[in-house]
Amino acid sequence: MPTTTHAREHAPPKHGYTRDGMPVYEHTHRYAKHDTAAQRFNSAVGLKITVLVGTMWCAYIFAVIAFVSLPSTIEQHSATVLVLWLSSEFIQLVLLPIIIVGQNIQARAADARATKTFEDVKDARTKIEEAIDLLDIHTEGGLHDAVQVIVDAINKKSAAPGVAT
Question: Residue 117: pLDDT above 70?
Answer without folding.
Answer: yes
